[in-house]
Amino acid sequence: MCELFIVKATRGSNNRLVGLVVSLLIAFSAAAGSPQPGDVPPALDGNDQHGGIADLGALRGHVVVLTFWASWCGPCLNEMSMLARLQGVANERGLDLSVVSVNYKEDSRTFKKIAKALADLPLRLIKDSDGTNASRYDVDRIPNMFLIGRDGLIVSHHVGYTDKALDGLLAEISAELQKAPPDASS
After folding, report:
1. Which is the most buried residue in 20, 28, 78, 155, by most CB within 10 A?
2. Is 132 in a helix, a strand, or coil?
3. Does residue 83 sit in the same domain as residue 170?
4. Which tens digit of pLDDT belongs to each residue from 8-42?
5. What is the domain count for the chain?
6. Which segments constitute the Thioredoxin domain (predicted)?
7. Residue pair 109/163 in contact by the 8 Å Cβ criterion
8. What DSSP character marks residue 55?
9. Does 2 share its domain with 60?
């Protein structure tokens, strides 16, 4: 999500040079914080709705769908519904898929209500009231999803959710599930 800011120089080459430097600094600082495909995903802080520790390392060998969402976000709720169905099918078929849903900046009370309301869904919910996890992933818009391969590396990153994008997303997840799990000795 690297945005190029164009600074219009009004006088002299020094203004243009300063504008260019500022533009590049802004662009590179925005890109530096966002995990990219091939990167090891940042660690998660916190516990899930059952008190388990949020540990992506423990999910190595699984395909992980890590999504940031909030209860007030309509597209997030559509995505969560789809991911819950996907996780249910994966569980029924014995597939190594784990959906980890990070609740974006909602307070503890709201998170508890959400966890109770979603208790029947086969999703791991992680509370991120202060936005620590979102900051590590450079999340500033939701829904925001990272696909993590069996090898523990980020495969792709998606911002937003539409039904049109669903086929492509499911194809990505399916392709990752078809890959062999990493060798246990590595």
Report:
1. 155
2. helix
3. yes
4. 333 444 555 444 444 444 444 444 578 999 999 99
5. 2
6. 30-178
7. no
8. -
9. no
